[in-house]
Each structure stands twice: as C-alpha cells, then as structure tokens.
Design goal:
The structure is a homodimer of 397-residue chains.
Chain A lengths: L3 E8 L2 E8 L2 E5 L1 E3 L12 H6 L4 E4 L1 H6 L3 H6 L3 H5 L4 E4 L3 H6 L4 E3 L4 E4 L6 E4 L1 H11 L3 E3 L11 H25 L50 E6 L5 H14 L3 E4 L8 H12 L8 E3 L5 H10 L3 E3 L2 H7 L2 E4 L2 E4 L19 H5 L2 H9 L3 H25 L1
Parallel strand pairs in A: 4-14, 5-6, 6-10, 10-11, 11-12, 12-13, 13-14
Antiparallel strand pairs in A: 1-2, 2-3, 7-8, 8-9, 15-16
Helix pairs in contact in A: 6-7, 7-8, 10-14, 11-14, 13-14
Chain lengths: 397, 397
C-alpha cells in the first residue's frame, strides 16, 4: 500500500490512529487547514509547522486555474512549490465545480464549467481530475465525484450516486495506470532539515523541469511507498439506504481511504450528524475515514468521537478574516466595541503565540483599522484552536 | 539625560553608535521600519524581533484618529498596547497633516485639519502634539513642525522655518512640564522575557486604567532615565543658509537629538543629498541625527556614510505590497511572468527566512492570485534587506 494507517486506540466509536504518508506521519483524528491556492490565507508555512499542522488541504480547481497544473508539476509538485515538507491532500475539484452552479454542465463524460475568474470554458473528467492531482503530487488525492445538491428527490440522489460510482471506477483505473507519474516520486520525499539550506541549493542540471530547490530532496531509489494514495467518496444524498449502497460499492472498487462527501450543502445539522453516523457504520475499520468540509469546533470533536479520522473546513480561516474567533468561552466577534480596551488575550485558556502576546484591544484595533495583521493573528489563533481541539479529542481516546 | 547616545566609531563622516532608550539599546546607524497604526503592515512583532529591528516608528496622526490616544494611554502606552518591548519613535503628526493639503489650515497657534477617514475637524498645536505623544509613550518623540512645501520662495521658506522654531520652543516647554506623565513611566519598561507569560498574567486590580498585561512589566522605582526623549526638527526648505540658521537656533533650544525634516517632498534627489550634507555640518557630533522619510537602500547607505544615525521610510513596506522587491541584484517586480517558473529565491544573496524557504515562482503565484501571504513574505524580505543594508554599513565603519 502507498498509505499505511494504524488504529492505535479505540474508545467507543472513536479511534486514535496514525497515517504514514510519503511526507510524514499524521496523527488522527486530524483537522486539515485549508490552503486553497497553495497558501493557508495569511499564514506562513513556518507558522503552520509551529502550530503542529501535519497535513493541509489544497484545491485542485483553484490551482488548475492559477498557476496551472503544468507550472506546479514543473516546480516538482505542490510540496516543493509551496515549500511544505509535510503531508498534503488535494480535493478533486468536484465540489468546487458543483459550487459554480450556473457555470457548469454535467454529462456522463465529465463536467464542463466556466472559470469564476475570467469565464473561460474548461472540462474536468474523472481522468483529467486525477491527472491534475497526480501533477500536483499531494500525498492523498480524491476521486472525482458529483456532489448531490440539497434538497433532491430519491431518483435524483440515486442517479447522482450512480454517476459518482461510475466516475470512481474511472478514477481508480486512471490512477492505477498513471500513478508512477507523480512529480516527486523519483526524487524522494522532502525532509524538514533541508528547509534551512535553500541558500546553498544545488540544482540538478540535467532535469530542469523536475529539479528540486532543496538540497535535502535528493533522489531516492524507487519504492512502492513513494506514490500517492487515492480515496473514494461516498455520496447518496440524505438517504440512509443510498449511503449504505454507495459505501459498499465504493469499497468494492477499493481505495486507500474513504470520504463522506455531499454534506454541509445546506441541510440541517442534525441531519448531517445522522448521515455521518449511519455512513460510518458501513466503512471499513482499517482504513482512514474522511468527512469533507465540516465544521465548527464542537462538530469536529463530535464527529471524531463518532469515528471520523480526518476533517477539513474553511471555517477557522474564513471566520478569522471576518473577525470571528473561536475560543474556549465560545465564539466572539473581535470587531465589537466592547473589546476596544480589553487587555485580556483572545482566549484566556489558549497558549497559542497570539494569545500569549497580544490583547483583544490590540487585535480589535487592527481589525477596525483594516490592518492585515488582524487577519494573520486571527487566523493563527483559530487554527490553533481547531488543532488543539483535535489534539484534546485524540488524547481523550 | 533621558536618552544616552554613544558614538563608538567614526570613519570619515560616518559614525557607528549606540542609543540607550528606556526600551533597549539601538545600534546606529539604524533603519526604523514604519508601523503607522501600531503595526508594520502584515508583519507580526515576533517576526520584527527575528529580523533584528531594534526600534520602529509609529504615526501620531493615525493613532490619534484610530484607536485614539486615550485608549492607548489606558492600555499602558504603545509598547504594551502593541506588545512591542523594544524602542519606538513617534512622529509629531506635522508631516501627516502637511500631507493632507486641502484639508488643513495653519495659524500661529497650530493646525486645523480634517480627518482623511470621516472629514471630522481636529486641531493640533505644538502642545497637543506633545501631549498626544506623551500619551502614546514612545521612547523618542518629535517636535511639531511645519514641513515647508516644495517648491517655495525664500520668504516663504524663512517664514515657515520661523514658525517651526517658535513651535519647537513651545514643544520643549510643554514637554518639560509634562514629561512625567508618560503612561509606562511608573510601571517600568517591558522586558522581552515577559512576552511568553501572558497566559499566566496577573492584572493589578487597583489601577485598571494603567495595568500592564505582562507579568514582567512590574513597577520599578522612578528614575530620571525612565522618561521619553524629545527631538527637534531642522527645517529651512532647500536653502543652505536657512538650514544653517534653523540648525543653530534649534540646537539653542536644546533637544536630545536632531532631525532633518522637509526633505523627500518632491525635490530632485541630488538636492536632497546636498541639503542633508550641508545641514549635517551644523548638527552636534554628540547627539543622534535623524533624517526623516528617506529612502532607497542605496540612499540610506549613502546618508549613513554622510553621518546620519537614524532613518525611516515606508518604501520597503509599501513597495512590498506592490510586489516590488529590493535585492542585491537590484529592484525586481515579482508580478512579472518571467518569474512564474523561477525556482530561485527572491534574492540569491539574502539569508532571510523568506529567501531561505520560498521560490520566486511561489511568491509570484501568491501575488498574482492576490494571496495575503504575498504581502507578508515580500514585506519580511524587504525589511530584512533594509536592516541588513544598515548592518553592513555599520560594520564597515
């Protein structure tokens, strides 16, 4: 297997485990910060490392448009391009394209869509989505699925699920035929120690399109471990039977891990929870389970206790940009005038470098004055809060 | 004296020295990063420390409007407010108000101006500008001057210089009468070690309006050293005789240091240099000399070699936001397509944490995609380049 996953401890339905990726270990349950355009908005990679982020997510759709898959492939893949030596997961673009609404057209073959940037027309198929993700070179890549809209009737949910399953097979087949083409494969993984040596880097002259910018990223012998892992995605709308069928048939195709997609699309939270809980019952215990695109700190803790191993969400980073902070005392809006002279930290129970140093009064001032540092500090705190939340859950298992 | 200044080495006209401020030592010649609104745009205070910044500048006019002097005074002054334990210099607001053009009216008493934010009317006098700067509590504060516009005829330059001198006297007098009112005075200076202990901070319950948020900022006995220093500003337009007269009469009033103001207001660079050179001849050798608001890396190096001890400029931070980078190979515009696949660092001869880690291709992508991290990384590099430039000049003296 390209990805090994060990469940180390089980408590009720919750599991504490460990993912071994070509770019390091990931302790699960894990929250993955979202770095849409190969950057977790406002946060440097050094800071992400300090925060203890072991894996981040990047979006294929956005990177396909800017700077383009070819550019990132030529730079040695996403890890080299963004100077991030730890694990990366890319989505397939399916959900992003789904979000475009009027700008897309879906057929059996794939999805024709128009760029949100310039209106230009593009086409993603299961094959091209995997090709793009191989070019990006994330450790974990996702099958190209159709995210069923909400609400939808049963026929629509069933048809959509069927399409996702047929696409899943095509993704698997394309991946098996092309998985050797990952840009970093013949160059080994990047280690953290190499990060301090850019200044002395030597570039391999004979392979300019694939050369690494880090001296530490020297070629290693081809190993079966040094390839990406492909996850399947369970769909089936809000129907328990269809979710079960989708899970079973996705498992039949066979993937390194299984994601629950098609949630957080407008349905009530209680329904989300029900679908998550019932779908988890049908997923194999020895493979990582990834719940896509959720949620609040309370929700990610709850889902982890239900047996989810991996989660991602834009909430901590997006909320930060709007001055919303997650704290041990609940959510606060730092823009409020009540914080203008509040000398306390953002969260009295948080030990992140923002809470150790800055006051609410200062961060409130930065936000009110539209200073970029407000976004930076808010994001660092929120990510710290999310990552801490997950570490606490893991510890409690 | 509140500020002690030692000239340690002289080479030609250049001097290597050391400023002793209530918030630490400053090696001169020094470049002061500009933190207009109590934040060097996009850069955290941790990073400024790592870059080796020993003193930063903040703008009285901007802080007076947002968040207001009263708020910062109640937070214990700028150092506590922005969690910056090292030295700070504030300008007087004179230049900012000068820049408002149509929005201001100057009389003998002071300047009536309208806020660039909401058009509200305000009044700065020499007294109120010093009062504001005492409230902010920077280590070095500046006399309130009139920055003479360029071009101006000799009568206008003489009249303007005369006004600045009369205002300088009033500044000095107000400062002498009120310098005990600095917010941090009776609470001592803040030391760096305290920065890691916010989580355990104990707030002094009996003085909530002045309490420190850092445990390390404990009250110390009143000492004459624990007050601010006031600098005078030499004006006189582009006239050598008037500059000489302004220098002599400002020195007669007596300040802890002397600034050269009224330059970089549209005059040719050769004229700037001439005026700087001739004005420096009239400034005392045993006091720090501060050239306000210049310049490019080449210029700050040149002015240091002419005998200037302190400089500030928005250029490295502002240029960074426009994708302009200062490097050992000249200025580059990272937005250019030629860098899209350039795996080299921003500057091959720079050892800053940006150049050690990231490629031009990555930073170019961030800039093109409008990612905030582009501003952050560009600013860190440019500041590093400026601070390195000054360290090299100091070393060469």
């Amino acid at each position: 297997m390209s990805l090994s996953f060990q469940v180390e401890k089980v408590s009720g339905k919750a599991r504490a485990g460990r993912l071994f990726t070509p770019h390091g270990e990931v302790e699960t349950p894990v929250f993955m910060p979202v770095g849409t355009l190969a950057s977790v908005k406002g946060v440097s990679q050094d800071t992400l490392e300090e925060l203890g982020a072991q894996i981040i997510l990047a979006n294929t759709y956005h990177l396909y448009l800017r700077p383009g898959i070819g550019t990132i492939r030529r730079m040695g893949g996403l890890h080299d391009f963004m100077a991030w030596p730890r694990a990366i997961l890319t989505d397939s673009g399916g959900f992003q394209v789904f979000s475009l609404n009027e700008l897309r057209k879906i057929t059996e073959e794939g999805v024709t869509f128009r760029s949100h940037l310039d209106g230009s027309t593009h086409f993603f198929s299961p094959e091209s989505a995997i090709e793009a993700q191989i070019g990006l070179g994330a450790d974990i890549i996702m099958a190209f699925d159709e995210c069923t809209e909400y609400p939808a009737d049963r026929d629509r949910m069933r048809a959509s699920m069927g399409l996702t399953l047929r696409w899943a097979k095509r993704c698997k087949q394309y991946f098996e035929e092309h998985k050797q083409e990952v840009p970093w494969r013949s160059y080994g993984h990047v280690d953290t120690a190499a990060l301090s040596s850019r200044g002395e880097c030597q570039l391999a002259g004979d392979a300019p399109e694939l050369r690494s910018t880090w001296t530490g990223a020297s070629p290693v012998p081809t190993q079966t471990e040094q390839i990406q892992s492909l996850f399947g995605i369970v769909q089936g709308g809000m129907d328990h039977e269809l979710r079960k069928e989708s899970a079973e048939r996705t498992i039949e195709i066979g993937f390194s891990g299984y994601a629950i997609g098609g949630l957080s699309v407008g349905e009530p939270r209680t329904l989300t929870r029900e679908i998550v809980e019932s779908t988890l019952e049908h997923l194999p215990a020895d493979k990582p389970r990834y719940l896509m695109g959720v949620g609040t700190p309370e929700e990610i803790a709850e889902y982890a206790r239900l047996g989810v191993d991996m989660m991602d969400c834009v909430l901590p980073t997006r909320a930060a940009r709007h001055g919303l902070l997650f704290t041990s005392e609940g959510k606060i809006s730092i823009k409020q005038a009540r914080y203008a002279q509040d000398q306390g930290p953002l969260d009295p129970n948080c030990a992140c470098r923002v809470c150790r140093r800055y006051s609410r009064a200062y961060v409130r001032h930065l936000y009110a004055a539209n200073e970029v540092l407000a976004q930076v500090l808010n994001t660092v705190h929120n990510l710290s809060f999310y990552l801490d939340t997950m570490r606490r859950v893991r510890h409690s298992i």
